Amino acid sequence: xxxxxxxxxxxxxxxxxxxxxxxxxxxxxxxxxxxxxxxxxxxxxxxxxxxxxxxxxxxx
Length: 60
Description:
By secondary structure, the protein is α+β, with helices and mostly antiparallel strands. The chain is 45% helix and 13% strand.
């Protein structure tokens, strides 16, 4: 599942549109992604519009 698909499912189920994502190493199944984002957003609240499409569409 991708982040984009998860948020679409959340919106469909709740009617709410997520605006931020919380990132931290423990949330990733991929060490590559955790490493890529660790310096920038480790354990940070990040607005959705700041996330690159390459991350939103990556399969986890």
